[in-house]
Amino acid sequence: xxxxxxxxxxxxxxxxxxxxxxxxxxxxxxxxxxxxxxxxxxxxxxxxxxxxxxxxxxxxxxxxxxx
Length: 67
Fold this sequence. Notes:
Blueprint: H1 2-23, E1 27-31, E2 45-47, E3 54-56, E4 62-66
Antiparallel strand pairs: 1-4, 2-3
């Protein structure tokens, strides 16, 4: 009985990093500028294709999208 509990605890502890890795997503960062005058574009919508996941650029044209 003690051995099976020890094996269960060991198995659970070894799987914690795998569960944490599965929960973490990727971050896509970028900068949007105008093609005409190379100025930052404010309020541009950035969408992940095939999802409803999206963000809007800030005052400097920067965005961070978590996928």
